[in-house]
């Protein structure tokens, strides 16, 4: 059991030149010009959805937004390695994964506007809704993957989590059971270097991927800003778990280029110089350079992709603003499937409060 590569796997350098990797280049040998352009399109669209959501929050149309700026390749690359029947357990930042799973962009924002308690039916797209309890999805994913294992289902399960989540007991417990039960689960850590204001060096004094070894889980580090490398290693990991070899752990090295959420100000705890280093490793720019190097990028393609991204963003904005504000008492619905005395009491109390408020107002 070991970390499967000495260096993080990279297939595209920041300047857009390809890296020939004996083991991993062949995992993406089917990615020709059309597929490469499709990956580029998804990266651009996902970034556009994200920037529109940030703008909507700044304009008071969302309560909160969790930007993914900088993490597009880690999400788009890994999501492209999955089949329809595979199941994704996300944290709260996986807009790119949700988009690639087929979630309509207009279904991504309602929760963040406070207009609904969940965004989509998880079973329609085989991806969970955003979950705020850091690390909890590791356990949920392990349980689901164990069920799939017992059913003999030919699927892979993937759990996305951050560098900060690796310090949570939930993730440790998930790795223990995933390993001893040999479940078909890919642990996908997006090490974006920060857990709000806490740097990854406070989470671990060893590379996060090395921690998996102690649980008996093979692992690998990948350049998380390289969409082809992420696609290649995730395909390898998915194949590994699907073939019944137990879980696999991927550490994708990336960077959160924006704030933790729209409530955060990263200039309070990190330097502009650090941001500049990572800007030079921009995940979209390097695919663009690769396409340019290989004669696959022209102004017609660029404006077509930009027009598509802008049109998705415009639809997203219109759909979000048109969302109806739910009646306050509906928040008590669907908490339990059967009547619950304590909740009924709270609901009645809140109804009285609302009624009093109306009397005062009138
Ligand atoms: C159990 C729990 N503890 C604390 C928090 C508050 N919290 C929200 S996000 C976050 C940092 C998570 O960092 P990381 O796992 O690196 O993910 P990232 O936000 O960087 O994607 C914390 C501490 C929470 N939501 N849940
Ligand atoms: Mg983080």
Question: Mind sketching the topology for me?
Answer:
Elements: H1 33-58, H2 72-79, E1 87-89, H3 95-100, H4 110-113, H5 122-125, H6 136-151, E2 157-162, H7 169-180, E3 185-191, E4 194-195, E5 198-199, H8 200-203, H9 208-214, E6 219-223, H10 227-242, E7 248-253, H11 272-279, H12 283-293, H13 299-321, H14 341-361
Parallel strand pairs: 1-2, 2-3, 3-7, 6-7
Antiparallel strand pairs: 4-5
Helix pairs in contact: 1-2, 1-12, 1-13, 2-10, 6-7
Bound molecules: thiamine diphosphate and magnesium ion.
Thiamine diphosphate binds at residues 93, 132-134, 162-165, 192, 194-196, 256, 260.
The value of Rg in angstroms is 21 Å
CATH architecture of the largest domain: 3-Layer(aba) Sandwich
Largest sheet: 5 strands, parallel
Question: How many angstroms does the end-to-end distance come to?
Answer: 70 Å
Oligomer: single chain
CATH superfamily of the largest domain: Thiamin diphosphate (ThDP)-binding fold, Pyr/PP domains
User: How many strand segments?
Assistant: 7
Give the helix proportion (percent range).
40-55%
Classification by helices and strands: alpha/beta
Are there runs of 5+ residues with pLDDT below 50, and where? Answer: none
Tally of distinct domains: 2
Task: Give the spatial strand order of the biggest sheet.
Answer: 1-2-3-7-6
- Please report the first level of CATH classification, the CATH class of the largest domain: Alpha Beta
Ligand inventory: thiamine diphosphate, magnesium ion
